[in-house]
């Protein structure tokens, strides 16, 4: 890529992500003047000479850094590819990160990050709830490698976080701290500043500071920048808000050059990279991330307000309704710049009442994803979180009456009308 396509400021004016998404990191001159990047459907790249092949392999494999002025180049699409390099540059802009890496799915990103930092005998300190897939990976697979998860439910109370830190340290070296804030589907919050302080303390005591990893899928990089608040890595299911159209599966991680380089090396070894076609689709999606999420946010507020006022609804877990006296409010104000558009609510009753309402919806689709242009609605206890033990579900407030909604960008009056007729 020629450097003129990596301009980020204009006369000391810092350009915004919404602007940079239209061209950053891509040079039309390298692709016959094509305004948009072509999809590089190639498995491998041709070397100009045997010596160049040797040099590129040395740099790609991390055996040495590239020399000043040395021509860079691509090797093989498991290690690098123009589409994912452009996408990574642009994701790093959203996250204000040194570097990003993209993966075949959110779970490919999460599992590669966990494997990059954990060793047999380690513990993972984690918030609860985590996405069901992350929880299952930790409890059903990583335990076979001698890795023990230790969870905490209250991510705000420093005393409770401290108790979980003690428990995790008593069981082994804390290899990594895994957080999800806001959490899916309860919208629970974790105080990142408190956790970063805990990571420093653990590091001082055990001689290894565990990286703090935040799954930022629920708000996305538009409304929360975890790296600003003490996290070392932000991970994503890009399938959700970044992709935004429910038509691809992808994952990402952002952080310092050093940490993401290490994760990228493991990605190359495992083969968890994202394919060029999905990268291209994500480049297109990132151009509209701002306007899509703004509209979804506005719609979500209207839907949440309608539900709060409805006689058949017991509770609405919407971050926009946090009250000043609630200890989560300060954390929310510090870490998040909007409540987002995925939240949960409880109907009066239990599973039967929840199912009755879901089955009557005509516009909203019953499906288990989030962050798309269309509104999706689901019953977590019987689907995404059915693998989570009932006692744990009760502890985190994931009841049979709980419904999760991911509000899309339709006309909000139509969404309210759909809920109104389903609840009637
Ligand atoms: C918060 C969160 N993290 C991670 C994932 C996993 O992402 P993917 O389905 O892209 O593997 C999901 C998927 O629903 C999620 O909601």
SSE blueprint:
Layout: E1 9-10, E2 13-14, H1 17-20, H2 50-60, H3 82-95, E3 99-103, H4 106-117, E4 123-127, H5 132-141, E5 148-152, H6 158-171, E6 174-180, H7 192-206, E7 212-215, H8 220-223, E8 233-237, E9 251-255, H9 257-270, H10 276-287, H11 289-308, E10 313-317, H12 327-335, E11 342-347, H13 351-360, E12 365-366, E13 376-378, H14 390-395, E14 402-406, H15 412-423
Parallel strand pairs: 4-5, 4-6, 6-7, 7-8, 12-13
Antiparallel strand pairs: 1-2, 3-9, 8-9, 10-11, 11-14, 13-14
The protein binds pyridoxal-5'-phosphate (PLP).
Would you write up a description of this structure?
The protein has 424 residues and is α/β, with parallel strands linked by helices. 39% of the residues lie in helices and 14% in strands. It is built from 15 helices and 14 strands. The chain has helices at residues 17-20, 50-60, 82-95, 106-117, 132-141, 158-171, 192-206, 220-223, 257-270, 276-287, 289-308, 327-335, 351-360, 390-395, 412-423; strands at 9-10, 13-14, 99-103, 123-127, 148-152, 174-180, 212-215, 233-237, 251-255, 313-317, 342-347, 365-366, 376-378, 402-406. The strands form three sheets. It has a seven-stranded mixed β-sheet, with helices on both faces. A five-stranded mixed β-sheet has the order 10-11-14-13-12. A two-stranded antiparallel sheet has the order 1-2. A hairpin with a 2-residue loop joins strand 1 and strand 2 (13-14). The chain is globular and about 75 Å long. Pyridoxal-5'-phosphate (PLP) binds at residues 105-107, 131, 133, 180, 184, 215, 217-218, 237, 239, 249, 251.
